[in-house]
């Protein structure tokens, strides 16, 4: 059995799916400064939590596993208790399971006639490809823990919803069939991540995966430093990056170096789309 600190979770699994090296640092250096969320990131996390809480109103009658975030084993035990209640609640919010040395906390677990439905709540306006492995690892853990999961859904915000009528605030999309395909690779990937975590820092080359689906917090450790920019008359000043610390825009528009919104990049070197730092920034000649 792996020590608890080396156990995986849904978020760790997804980090490892993006890059084993990123996962290794997340697990072995949990206090790394890169992992401290800045104001913008905290804002996004808070919005996600708020949407998650609101979603429970649309699957009413459930019982919340209401324990502090890091009490994983207690949450697993409490979930087991709720599943054995008579009568069993129609839904459990934050139901938590452990199997294959991996924790999975389900936003909403809904009891059905022949099994359970798992609902992953997302603060997005549509279903995204990266949601599928997120749901798949939960289905894997729940089934390995002995729970019959018959349905998997992503519940995201409805772009058609107009205030003050919030009756259609969410859209529930059945992703059961899509997830079954992704599930085929989950077991091997979990085993590979566990093996990797027991060794030393893996050697992973940089690439597109450093910013997809999320900007890796360890970019500064892996990517080479930019060379000094040059002007037409010779050596020029270094690139200037104007940032707004207060910006709460999505990470897709953030500078991968500073993790802040880039409003303007270099006035001298005009980096091309191959520029490793931020291809989304506008270069002013
Ligand atoms: S910067 Fe790229 S290679 Fe380095 S840990 Fe992050 S994802 Fe992996």
Name its key features.
single chain; 285 residues; alpha/beta; Lambda Exonuclease, Chain A; seven-stranded mixed sheet; two-stranded antiparallel ribbon; 11 strands; 30% helix; disordered C terminus; binds iron/sulfur cluster
Helices and strands in order:
Elements: E1 8-9, H1 10-18, H2 20-28, H3 39-56, E2 63-64, H4 72-83, E3 91-99, E4 102-111, E5 116-122, H5 131-144, E6 149-157, E7 170-174, H6 176-183, H7 186-197, H8 219-222, E8 230-231, E9 234-235, E10 242-244, E11 261-264
Parallel strand pairs: 1-4, 2-3, 5-6
Antiparallel strand pairs: 3-4, 4-5, 6-7, 8-9, 10-11
Helix pairs in contact: 1-2, 1-5, 5-6
Bound molecules: iron/sulfur cluster.
Q: How would you describe this protein?
A:
This protein is α/β, with parallel strands linked by helices. The chain has two domains: 4-197, Lambda Exonuclease, Chain A (Alpha-Beta Complex), CATH 3.90.320; 226-285, no CATH class. It is 30% helix and 19% strand. The chain is built from eight helices and eleven strands. It has helices at residues 10-18, 20-28, 39-56, 72-83, 131-144, 176-183, 186-197, 219-222, and strands at residues 8-9, 63-64, 91-99, 102-111, 116-122, 149-157, 170-174, 230-231, 234-235, 242-244, 261-264. Helix 1 packs across helix 2 (20-28), helix 1 crosses helix 5 and helix 5 (131-144) packs across helix 6. It is globular and about 60 Å long. The N and C termini lie far apart (58 Å). The protein binds iron/sulfur cluster (SF4). Iron/sulfur cluster is lined by residues 19, 21-22, 204, 206, 209-210, 216, 218-219, 222.
């Amino acid at each position: 059995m792996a020590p608890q600190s080396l156990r995986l979770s849904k978020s760790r699994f997804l980090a490892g799916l993006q890059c084993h090296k990123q996962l290794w640092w997340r697990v072995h250096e949990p206090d790394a400064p890169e992992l401290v969320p800045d104001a913008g990131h905290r804002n996004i996390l808070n919005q996600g939590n708020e949407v998650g809480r609101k979603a429970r109103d649309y699957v009413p009658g459930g019982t919340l596993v209401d324990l502090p975030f890091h009490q994983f084993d207690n949450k697993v035990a409490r979930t087991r208790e709720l599943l054995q209640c008579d009568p069993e609640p129609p839904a459990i919010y934050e139901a938590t399971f452990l199997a294959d040395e991996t924790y999975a906390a389900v936003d909403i677990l809904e009891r059905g006639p022949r099994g359970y439905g798992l609902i992953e709540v997302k603060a997005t306006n549509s279903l995204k490809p990266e949601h599928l492995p997120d749901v798949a690892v939960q289905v894997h853990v729940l089934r390995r823990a002995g729970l019959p999961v018959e349905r998997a859904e992503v519940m995201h915000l409805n772009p058609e919803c107009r205030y003050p009528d919030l009756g259609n605030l969410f859209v529930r999309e059945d992703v059961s069939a899509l997830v079954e395909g992704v599930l085929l690779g989950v077991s091997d990937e979990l085993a590979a991540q566990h093996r990797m975590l027991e060794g030393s820092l893996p050697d992973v080359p940089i690439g597109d995966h450093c910013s997809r689906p999320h900007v890796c917090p360890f970019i500064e450790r892996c990517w080479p430093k930019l060379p000094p920019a040059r002007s037409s008359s010779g050596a020029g000043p270094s690139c200037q990056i104007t940032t707004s610390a207060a910006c709460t825009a999505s990470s897709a528009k953030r500078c991968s170096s500073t993790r802040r919104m880039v409003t303007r990049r270099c006035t001298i070197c005009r980096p091309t789309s191959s520029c490793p730092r931020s291809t989304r920034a506008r270069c002013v000649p």
